[in-house]
Amino acid sequence: MAISLGTIVESLGGALHGDSDLMVEGLAPLEVATSRQLSFLSNPKYQSQLASSKAACVIVSPQMRDIALARGACIVVEQPYLYFARVTKLWKKSLPRAQSAQIHPSAVIDPDAFVHPLARIGALCVVERGARIGAETELKSRVTVGEDCIIGERCLLHPGVVIGADGFGFAPNAGTWEKIEQLGAVCIGNDVEIGANTCIDRGALQDTTIGDGVKLDNLIQIAHNVHIGNHTAMAGCAGVAGSTTIGAHCTIGGSANVLGHLTLADGVNISAATVVTRSVRKPGHYTGFFPLDDNATWEKNAASLKQLHSLRDRIRALEEKLKN
């Protein structure tokens, strides 16, 4: 397929500098875009790639306008990355697509579940008793929605997502484990996207809740009784232990872990691979991991860390002697 630059700007806005009739046949990064493709520059540190790019047109900020014009056609907007995201959605809507059934024949939906007529249920999905699926929500293949769980409107659940499996609850009993029945459910708001093979466990007594606009990447584990605020985003392989509350507009980096029964305020950003061991009450960017090094150096530094407590006491003792 192809779409003209004029059509893109007419649909999404922006200031076009170039031929509005020029057709583009795809979207691509600056360094590999061809003369028939549209690209974008959102980070000024990559502007060196702009001059050499063969893209038919580049989406840029006003600050990059003159540099882009020296190269060729451009669309100037305040937020190039956001604009590019909207172009991808426009492009996908324009793609020819065969009509498929709202509910795939292989899906299994309990008679006591509710699926909105405008929802789409993919192949091999399971929607259990009492579950509710909202309007314009799409379940890709092999999604499972457990009993009494609620999925809001305009959500997208990618293949293999499991909503409402039992939380990990067991009471010790004379050297064995006795199961704690998980009596809550999962309640997911509107406009939520959940990546492939992510699992969100049902609550033990109260519901696990995911706010409006939350974005979860692939292979994330959300434990029972967790509450995630509106428009928070979490990258792949992150994990949140039980009964933790994460505020609105937070970001959790890939492979980060948040321990149980903690609270993260609104606007907290956690770096990748960080382990959050205490509540974070103020918005900001938080990081906690030991830097990568060659193994021999790392072992020496790790050994030194074990002595920090005794070294602190020795320093304090020396300071007291100096005072006297």
Q: How many helical elements?
A: 6
Ends distance? 83 Å
Q: How much helix is in the residues?
A: 10-25%
- Please provide the count of β strands: 35
Uncertain regions spanning at least 5 consecutive residues: none
Strand content: 25-35%
Morphology call: flat
Task: Estimate the mean pLDDT confidence.
Answer: 96
Per CATH, which architecture of the largest domain? 3 Solenoid
Oligomeric state, counting identical vs distinct chains: single chain
- Backbone structural class: alpha/beta
Tell me about the largest β-sheet: 9 strands, parallel
| CATH class descriptor of the largest domain | Mainly Beta
Rounded Rg: 26 Å
Key attributes of the depicted protein:
324 residues; alpha/beta; Udp-n-acetylmuramoylalanyl-d-glutamate--2,6- Diaminopimelate Ligase, Chain: A, domain 1; UDP N-Acetylglucosamine Acyltransferase, domain 1; 3 domains; 9-stranded parallel beta sheet; 27% strand; flat
Characterization of this structure:
The chain is an alpha/beta fold and 324 residues long. The protein folds into three domains: 3-94, MurE/MurF, N-terminal domain (Udp-n-acetylmuramoylalanyl-d-glutamate--2,6- Diaminopimelate Ligase, Chain: A, domain 1); 108-286, UDP N-Acetylglucosamine Acyltransferase, domain 1; 295-324. It has six helices and 35 strands. The strands form six sheets. A nine-stranded parallel β-sheet has the order 8-11-14-17-22-25-28-31-34, with no helix packed on it. The chain is flat and about 80 Å long. The N and C termini lie far apart (83 Å). The mean pLDDT is 96.
